[in-house]
Design brief:
Layout lengths: L1 E7 L8 E9 L7 E6 L2 H18 L5 E8 L3 H15 L26 E6 L3 H4 L9 E5 L9 H14 L6 E5 L10 H4 L6 E4 L5 H17 L7 E6 L2 H5 L1 H5 L7 E4 L1 H8 L11 H14 L2 E4 L8 H14 L3 E4 L3 H10 L3 H19 L6 E2 L2 E2 L2 H16 L7 H6 L2
Parallel strand pairs: 3-4, 5-6, 5-12, 6-7, 7-8, 8-9, 9-10, 10-11, 11-12
Antiparallel strand pairs: 1-2, 2-4, 13-14
């Protein structure tokens, strides 16, 4: 038998990655041959060879030749690339895993703030390693559009290892799987590794969500996982817009509805514009479907990463329509998104008045709460409390807000 497979990336501009060539041949010696080229060979050559030898031994790979071309890859990246290569020539079900970072052992709440979600290509480790330091609300490791079809197999191993070994600094740990039915094959790589939320692209029916939910529950049962895994369907077609409410209500784990305008406008045969006239109906429909279902509405990405003023205007329009956040494709967009989705001074003042009126009525034992001539019902109070919580978390309001307000 003779077989050669390759995984990874190499060439000009490639950082924090490696390229693996694995050849199996019955004529080779029993012990694998390992050749390594690396700029850090003097310092880490021995450790690199030991890691490769350990992984080959773990999978009982013999009569093989391994060539590792290293461009500064971390161990979890090398392990992902080599494992992907091995599983292209072997049907083993074993998995070579590093221990999960303790800092990655957290869950997220269904109503968590999701102003920003930073998209990162699932096959580009250099962009993953320090993404959390930019403080996005969520980090999306993308297995869909950002990964070439020929690279999807190996990207799954890299995303799996990144979920275990990259510090997300508390950001919600998200993965955009491939569209159905291919996306079901992604689940085994991400469900056991503490993913917080799964994005389902090009979602067009409640049945797709229910099928996804069923497969997630099977894998959770297999690995004895008890924590919730949230779902964010992405509406990207006219049919998806029409079915948005049914999609939003399809599972209790659907935490938000997102809209993807590049694919939506392509489906319409329309050109996407900065003004958004062509997508106004769809955006409103998604917002109303989400709010009717009691979940968040998440807007599309803004593709011009150089124009921060245009981004600000887009965020303010998005917020005015009722969206709770949006995607972003560059870390520089995060600050603008956070500042402009956060409540402004007028919203904070109104929320403070509502909550203070509710507190005063409660303290007096009153069954009816009023602010001026307007009655205040529990949903209004809940929204006001949420506004204050966001204002505190974004630094727009100090924690002892009530005492400060009463002194005015």
């Amino acid at each position: 038998m003779n077989k050669i497979v390759t995984t990874g990336n190499k060439g000009k501009g490639i950082r924090s990655d490696c390229f693996v060539t694995l050849e199996i041949d019955d004529s080779f010696n029993q012990e694998p041959q390992i050749e390594i080229s690396s700029k850090v060979m003097v310092m880490y050559g021995k450790a690199l060879k030991e890691l490769c030898s350990e992984i080959l031994a773990f999978y009982n790979i013999k009569k093989a030749k391994l060539i590792l071309e290293d461009s500064g890859a971390l161990p979890f990246v090398i392990a992902a690339r080599l494992e992907a290569a091995i599983k292209m020539i072997s049907d083993t079900e074993k998995n070579y895993l590093f221990p999960m970072l303790e800092t990655n052992d957290y869950q997220t709440a269904k109503e968590r703030r999701r102003f920003s979600r930073l998209y990162l290509p699932g096959n580009s480790p250099s962009l993953m390693i320090n993404a959390g330091i930019h403080s996005p609300d969520g980090i999306i490791l993308d297995l869909e559009d950002a990964v070439a079809p020929s690279k999807k197999h190996e990207a799954r191993f890299l995303v799996r290892n990144a979920l275990r070994n990259v510090d997300f600094y508390g950001a919600e740990r998200m993965v955009r799987i491939n569209q159905m039915p291919l996306g079901l094959e992604d689940l085994e790589y991400i469900i056991p590794n503490n993913v917080n939320l799964i994005l389902l692209p090009k979602c067009e029916s409640a049945a797709q969500i229910q099928l996804l939910d069923e497969n997630i529950e099977k894998i959770k049962a297999k690995y004895n996982i008890n924590r919730p895994i949230w779902l964010m369907p992405i509406i990207e077609s006219a049919l998806g817009v029409i079915n948005a409410y049914e999609i939003a209500k399809a599972s209790p784990f659907v935490t938000s509805l997102a809209i993807g305008l590049e694919d939506y406008t392509a489906d319409l045969g329309a050109k996407r514009t900065q003004e958004g006239t062509e997508s106004f109906y769809a955006r409103c429909a998604v917002v109303n479907a989400a709010k009717a279902a009691g979940i968040q509405a998440i807007d599309s990405v803004f593709s011009d990463v150089s124009d921060m003023e245009a981004l600000k205007e887009n965020v303010l329009r998005s917020k005015a329509l009722g969206f709770d956040g949006m995607g972003c494709i560059h870390p520089r967009q995060i600050k603008v998104i956070h500042e402009n989705y956060a409540p402004d001074a007028a919203e904070i003042e109104k929320a403070m008045k509502i909550v203070n009126a509710f507190m005063e009525a409660t303290e007096k034992g009153l069954g009816v709460v009023a602010l001026g001539s307007k009655m205040i019902d529990p949903p209004v109070v809940k929204r006001a409390e949420r506004t204050i919580e966001i204002a505190i978390n974004t630094g727009k309001l100090i924690k002892n807000w009530r005492e400060s307000y009463e002194k005015q």
